[in-house]
Design a protein that fits this description.
The strands form eight sheets. Strands 17-18-16-15-21-22 form a six-stranded mixed beta sheet, with helices on both faces. The protein has a four-stranded mixed beta sheet with strand order 3-2-1-5, sandwiched between helices. 38% of the residues lie in helices and 18% in strands. The protein contains 15 helices and 22 strands. It is globular.
Length: 503
């Protein structure tokens, strides 16, 4: 009986794939770097066919590395970047590039949606208008009408790759439920498109794809793609889910109260609840979990994890930080004795998403001549944690005193002991790295196993596959310090956003 599973993640930095045994052992991994096009300020695109090439090449490498007989692959599932869109034509081929979640061209349409229907969009989708599907679809309609006319449906990178692997046409396009909060025009509670919102903004509802569950089989590998991937023609392919939903699942966030920190390109903070929630402050979105019946209220910092690499690459050189390695920068940050008047870093170099403040940009505030590279790098780490504190407080308000049990961390940033300690102290809850570092591909593989019938439910499968490492515990004597730092941070955000909007 076929029992091996492949999970693929089409991420911002690249496509990562892994092959697993039925009991959760990682047999091999593969990676291909992304090719982001930034032809002008605000524009960030990828070629969907290059993303497909990366999917095919990583699958083939996994099979070759493990000498796997293709008949032993029970199913594959693909997750991907969530807030961007690809327009596909009647034949299922892309007619637009991938309009990335990092692309900010649609900022003026965010303002339009907020002004005309922010409350309705929030209450129906669970997410306020931001750099996500709704404003992007409207941008294509008004700014590129000739291309828009050729679009049969809008999909995301994971869905596009599945369509191509299975030879699906444009009228077979799909979106799974974990993306709906980013859609702009969905009734998320009921997993369907909202006709009133579509009509209000003159959105062609026929250009919106069918809505499916992550573990629904969407098709089988066609012969052409079997040759490109090394898979057997006829291998089933599941719908998959959004990359953050897959990352949450890969941490075992399948029970109420378990929080997740995805310390990757985007810094994502999420919790797990048993009900849909609406944040009237427009900070937290609420998306469906890959686990049926659960929800993930969450928010993210656009490129929050990228800030650390940017600092190392660009700022560290100027400051002469020794070695320019993260290990050295972490040492410098750990050596700082925290003070209330330490510089505050604004982590929103590409605009703020949660809430949507697209004009806000990054900065340090409160610098003096005693501050050094350690202070600045610590500020970069702390800025993410202080933003997370806002998310956590908002979560408590949404769910009437809801208290997280723990925060599980995944992604490259989870390797930083000093960053984990800052987060634990700022949030005053245990920070626990998971012992699995495969990330989203592991979550996708669990979904593939459920789709193939190897697992009866995702929670029990995740519990058996995923173990926790030692917790970083919060220091109670830092609670007052970070209460004061949080007040400074919130005040700075308000002042800087008013200044940015005035320009």
């Amino acid at each position: 009986m076929a029992s091996k599973l492949i999970g693929i993640d089409i991420g911002t930095q690249g496509t990562k794939a892994a092959i697993f045994s039925e009991d959760g052992r990682t047999l091999a991994e593969s990676f291909r770097k992304s090719n982001l096009f930034q032809p002008e300020p605000g524009v960030v695109e990828e070629d969907p066919e290059e993303q497909l090439d990366a999917v095919c090449n990583t699958i083939k490498e996994l099979i070759d590395k493990t000498s796997t007989n293709p008949v032993d692959i029970a199913c594959i599932a693909i997750d991907g970047q969530m807030a961007g869109v690809i327009g596909v034509g009647d034949d299922g081929m892309n007619v637009t590039p991938y309009d990335s979640w990092l692309d900010t061209r649609c900022a003026s349409y965010i303002k339009q949606l907020k002004a005309e229907a922010a409350e309705d969009i929030l209450n129906k989708t669970g997410c306020a208008p931001s750099f996500n599907h709704g404003p992007k679809k409207i941008w294509w309609k008004h700014e590129q009408p000739d291309i828009y006319a050729k679009i049969k449906s809008f999909v995301q990178p994971g869905g596009y790759a599945v369509m191509r692997l299975c030879g699906l046409r444009g009228d077979q396009a799909f979106i799974d439920v974990t993306y709906l909060h980013f859609s702009g025009f969905a009734d998320n509670r009921n997993s369907k498109w909202d006709e009133e919102l579509c009509k209000r903004f003159d959105v062609d509802i026929e250009k919106l794809p069918r809505i499916v569950r992550p573990d629904q089989i969407m098709g089988q590998i066609i012969p052409e793609m079997a040759e490109r991937t090394g898979l057997k023609a006829g291998t089933p392919v599941a719908a998959g889910c959004g990359d953050t939903a897959a990352s949450f699942l890969s941490c075992g966030a399948a029970s109420e109260g378990v929080c997740v920190d995805v310390a990757g390109t985007a810094s994502v903070y999420a919790s797990t609840t048993a009900s849909f929630g609406v944040d009237e402050k427009l900070i937290l979105g609420c998306g469906q979990s890959a686990v049926s019946g659960l929800w993930h209220p969450y928010a993210y910092i656009n490129g929050g994890g990228m800030n650390l690499e940017w600092f190392r690459r660009e700022i560290g050189v100027i400051l002469g930080a020794e070695g320019l390695e993260f290990s050295r920068l972490n040492e410098l940050a750990a050596a700082i004795e925290p003070r209330l008047d330490d510089p505050v870093f604004v982590p929103h170099l590409a605009g703020r998403n949660s809430p949507a403040q697209p004009d806000l940009r990054g900065s340090w505030a409160g610098l003096n001549w005693n501050h050094n590279a350690g202070h600045l790098f610590r500020g970069v780490c702390e800025g993410v944690a202080l933003e997370y504190r806002i998310y956590q407080q908002t979560l408590s308000e949404m769910y009437d005193g809801f208290k997280p049990v723990e925060i599980r961390i995944t992604g490259g940033g989870g390797k930083s002991a000093v960053w984990n300690k800052i987060k634990a102290d700022v949030l005053q809850i245990p920070v626990i790295p998971v012992d699995r570092q495969e990330g989203a591909p592991l979550g996708s593989a669990l979904i593939a196993g459920k789709a193939a019938g190897l697992f009866s439910d995702l929670k029990s499968a995740a519990d058996s596959w995923i173990k926790k490492d030692a917790a970083t515990m919060p220091s109670s004597d830092m609670a007052e310090h970070y209460s004061g730092r949080s007040v400074r941070y919130v005040s700075l955000m308000d002042a800087l956003n008013s200044w940015a909007e005035s320009l």
